[in-house]
Amino acid sequence: MPYEQATAIVLRNVPFSETSLVATLFSLEFGKIRGLAKGGRRLKGHFEGALDLLSLCRIVFVRKTSEALDLFTETKLLRRFPSTETDLPRILVGFYMAELINELTQDYQPHPQLFGLADRTLEKLPSEEKIRARMLHFELSLLNILGFLPSLEICTECGESVGWDNSVAFSEITGGVICEKCQSGNRATFRLSVPSRRIMYALSQPPDAEHGESGASEDLRRVNLTAREFYEIRGLVSHYVCTLLGKRPKLFPLFEKIGLFRWDPREAG
Hints:
Layout: E1 3-15, E2 21-27, E3 31-37, E4 56-62, E5 70-79, H1 88-104, H2 112-124, H3 131-146, E6 168-171, E7 176-178, E8 190-192, H4 194-203, H5 227-245, H6 252-258
Parallel strand pairs: 3-5
Antiparallel strand pairs: 1-2, 1-4, 2-3, 4-5, 6-7, 6-8
Helix pairs in contact: 1-3, 2-3, 3-5, 4-5
């Protein structure tokens, strides 16, 4: 069987035996791949810790033609994600990113834009000051790239354009904004202010496929996020993600416990 090579981010690994593990990777070339790494739990060998969670690596593998797991033969570590106790919030955000990618992508469906976004975000996270804004940027950009972004400009009831002059209703059921004439009898869960909607739009712009950059939204210093906008957007995105997944992400209780769902004035734009 021919060998394949890919650059990939480690999303998940599960022990398979005393020395081996099953890993899920998100690669630039092939999208999500799952494989068996024989000897992957050994400190020395063909893998040498390159399959640690959130690591960026170069992987060599044999792609199976059936539903069997691929076989990972060797890896080269390109970047390890820091994992000290002082970086706990950033580590948890990284794990949440991995959870979203794993849940919302299919095997062997490449998404170069999403890979660039994930790679760039993981590179920035260890030194990121605006971690709450960075997390929103990743969530909204991911939803946009994968085609799940809620409608922010078009009424989800009648299909007409919704102006940006006034606050609008947002329906969790229809997955987007609702114009004034369609609100009658419609149970809208949220009310979106003009600033919040504009910020959501800016943060949702897809990154460049090659460089992982997304114009103004990549530079979070340009995003004027206040406490009001943060709580408005954070609440909407959290509810929307739960609805999309059909369950609550595993990291949400920990985010609440360590305060990532609470506004930090130091992150004001």
